[in-house]
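C-alpha cells for chain A. Residues wanted.
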C-alpha cells in the first residue's frame, strides 16, 4: 500500500484517539524511558496488517522499531509471540489501541476470507469482495481480502461497471441500461449486470452482458439461469454467500462468488500487546 494514500487515514485515526493528550500515560510517565512490548495472538488465524501496525508507530515517532516473526498471510496460533515494538514507552502506550485496531480488523478479514477460499479448493470458483466496507477503511479491508486469498471486485464506482436494480429502474430496462453504458464507456470496460429473475437473465444475454450476477436466487433458479446463459457470459453469484452456501455453489459450478460478509461481518482476530519491559 502507498503511504501517500494510507498516512492521512492513519493520522485521522490517531487524532481520533489522541485529540489533545494521553492523560493516563502522561501522568505515569513524567520522564519518558525506552521500553519494549510484545505482540501475541490470543486465537488462531491469519495475520494481516503488520506494516500498518508499524506505520502507526513510525508516524508517532520515526525512531520506533518493530520486528515480527511472521509475515502477512501467515497462520498464527493462540499464545504465539509474533513480534514486538520498542522505543519510547510513551509512544508504545499512545499508539497501542490504534495499531491493534488495524491489525485485529485486517487479520479478522484475512482469516474469514482464507476459510472460504479453503472451502473452494478443488474448484475454479473465485471468491470476490464487494464495496460493503467500513467508511475510510476500504484500502485496508480489500488488502486483507487479498492476503486471505480472495480477489478484489471493483475498488470504487470509477473502477468498473456494475448495473444494479436501481440502475435498471432508472434506465427503464436491462437492455437500455446496457446500451447506454456501452455507448458511454465504449468496449474497453466489461459490463456486469445484476439479475433477480430468469426473464432478466434472458434479457441480459440478448443485450450481450459480459458478466451476469445471479442475486439471491434459490438453487433451482440458479441451475436454470446457468442453462440459459450457456457460457455466453461469465457468472457471478451473490446474496448471503457465507460458509453455509459454499457447498451449494461448488455443486452448481459458477465462475465467481461475491461476498459482502468478508468485510462487513468478519470478526476481529484477537491480538494483544503485553509484557511491557522498561529498558
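Reply:
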Amino acid at each position: 500500500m502507498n503511504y501517500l494514500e494510507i498516512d492521512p487515514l492513519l493520522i485521522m485515526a490517531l487524532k481520533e484517539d489522541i485529540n489533545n493528550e494521553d492523560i493516563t500515560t502522561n501522568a505515569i510517565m513524567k520522564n519518558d524511558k525506552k521500553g519494549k512490548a510484545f505482540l501475541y495472538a490470543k486465537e488462531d488465524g491469519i495475520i494481516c496488517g503488520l506494516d500498518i501496525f508499524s506505520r502507526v508507530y513510525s508516524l508517532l515517532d520515526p525512531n520506533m522499531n518493530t520486528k515480527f516473526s511472521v509475515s502477512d498471510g501467515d497462520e498464527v496460533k493462540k499464545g504465539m509471540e509474533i513480534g514486538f515494538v520498542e522505543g519510547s514507552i510513551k509512544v508504545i502506550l499512545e499508539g497501542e489501541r490504534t495499531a491493534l485496531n488495524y491489525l485485529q480488523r485486517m487479520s479478522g478479514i484475512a482469516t474469514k476470507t482464507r476459510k472460504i477460499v479453503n472451502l473452494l479448493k478443488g474448484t475454479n470458483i473465485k471468491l470476490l469482495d464487494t464495496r460493503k466496507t467500513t467508511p475510510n477503511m476500504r484500502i485496508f479491508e480489500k488488502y486483507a481480502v487479498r492476503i486471505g486469498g480472495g480477489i478484489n471486485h471493483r475498488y470504487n464506482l470509477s473502477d468498473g461497471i456494475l448495473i444494479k436494480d436501481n440502475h435498471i429502474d432508472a434506465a427503464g430496462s436491462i437492455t437500455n441500461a446496457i446500451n447506454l453504458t456501452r455507448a458511454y464507456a465504449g468496449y474497453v470496460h466489461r459490463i456486469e449486470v445484476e439479475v433477480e429473475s430468469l426473464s432478466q437473465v434472458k434479457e441480459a444475454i440478448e443485450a450481450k452482458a459480459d458478466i451476469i450476477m445471479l442475486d439471491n436466487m434459490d438453487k433451482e433458479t440458479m441451475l436454470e439461469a446457468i442453462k440459459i446463459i450457456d457460457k455466453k457470459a461469465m457468472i457471478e453469484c451473490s446474496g448471503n454467500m457465507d460458509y453455509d452456501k459454499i457447498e451449494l455453489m461448488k455443486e452448481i459450478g459458477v465462475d465467481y462468488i461475491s461476498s459482502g460478509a468478508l468485510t462487513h461481518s468478519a470478526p476481529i482476530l484477537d491480538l494483544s500487546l503485553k509484557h511491557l519491559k522498561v529498558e
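The chain has two domains: 3-116+267-278, 119-264. The chain has a mean pLDDT of 95.
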